[in-house]
Amino acid sequence: MFFLVLALFLLGVLTGTAAHVPLPVTLVSAAAILAWLAAFAVRERGRAHRRDR
Question: Could you tell me the pTM of the whole model?
């Protein structure tokens, strides 16, 4: 998942809106998205684990 976030970040820097904002803003946004995706993955993994029982 980290590789996917990194690839999307690099794509955004090269071609998208991220190229128009300062680097610190882009890094903070990327960190926030990474944290959100990690929380979602942990929550879904917990749900899947409970379904198996």
Answer: 0.58
